[in-house]
Prior knowledge:
This protein is mainly α. It has five helices and two strands; from the N terminus they run H-H-E-E-H-H-H. The chain has helices at residues 30-37, 40-55, 83-104, 115-132, 145-162, and strands at 63-67, 73-77. A two-stranded antiparallel sheet has the order 1-2. Helix 3 (83-104) packs antiparallel against helix 4 (115-132). The longest helix is centred in the middle third of the chain and has 22 residues, at 83-104. The relative contact order is 0.22.
Amino acid sequence: MSLRIVSKRGAAAGASPQPMAGGPQDDDGWSSRIAKLVPAEALGLYGTGLAVLGRSKENETTDTLAANTAGEVFLSLAGDPPLTGLLILFVACLVICVVVRYRATQDPVSKKPQWAAVIVAAVSFIIWVVVLEPPAGPVSLGEYSYLGALVAVIWGAGVPLFYKGDPPG
């Protein structure tokens, strides 16, 4: 399956879209764009990594980022899994997300990726991790934690309305 997003916009008036190399490609509707812009490969890997980190209980007190009542992010010594492990996992998943999306959105002919789709997937992953909050995520927004969820909902529903991909052909 290609993660390349295809739009009928830009096609000649009245002309039907040309199939892309590798088979026919219909216009990606809103729900299809949502599915293609969610970085499932990074989300699945992050969840698995959390399970592995949760099993390493060598240190009962570990570093996590948290926010005080003023909303300032600070480092505290409370939480499990360790902050170092979460950050390594986060960076690894983000790199994998970008590499997978780069390759999966390449045009079969020109080999050019859809950079906007790659960036959207990376930002989607970052938002998802921030929304998790400790102990599953490395950052806490404190009393503003609702903002992460609000941004995630607006981002998830809004981006597919504005990013329509490339015209077929």
